[in-house]
Amino acid sequence: MMTTVKRDSKDKYVLFAFLAFFGVVFLVNGFFIYTAISTQTGLVTEQAYEKGLGYNLMLDEAKSQPNLKDDISYKSPVLSWKLKDESGQPVLDAKVIGRVIRPVQDGHDFDISLVSKGDGVYEASIKPPFKGQWIIKLESQWTQNNQDKTYKTTYHLMEK
Known about the structure:
Layout: H1 11-39, H2 48-63, E1 69-75, E2 78-84, E3 95-101, E4 110-118, E5 121-125, E6 132-144, E7 147-159
Antiparallel strand pairs: 1-2, 2-5, 3-4, 3-6, 4-5, 6-7
């Protein structure tokens, strides 16, 4: 004797619901993948490998700097950098330059030259084009006891 199974009319919707569920999942995942690939390249730093290799060189340069006593101050619009050697004598006749960097926005960085005001004080008049945070990378070069010396430092400026 053969038995027949009566099919419920709801059975045909189970397959449709199953396929629709996974179809929606694949569609949403596809949208997320497309959005992620088309909006962000994933590149955070240009030439990251080369910059990483240069990091140890930068650390060696920092260790080999002369032992100076320096004092940096900014009273709008004058940036002042006072340099004294380890014995407390002012550093005279140095060539002092700086790079003013806008860390949150490209295209607004600029260079400055600081002028000697005597007694180891070097000044420049700067007026950043925007309010907010700026980084000033300063470098001084001078000759002492027939040796060329270089000293670098960084100053964080908040323009109000």
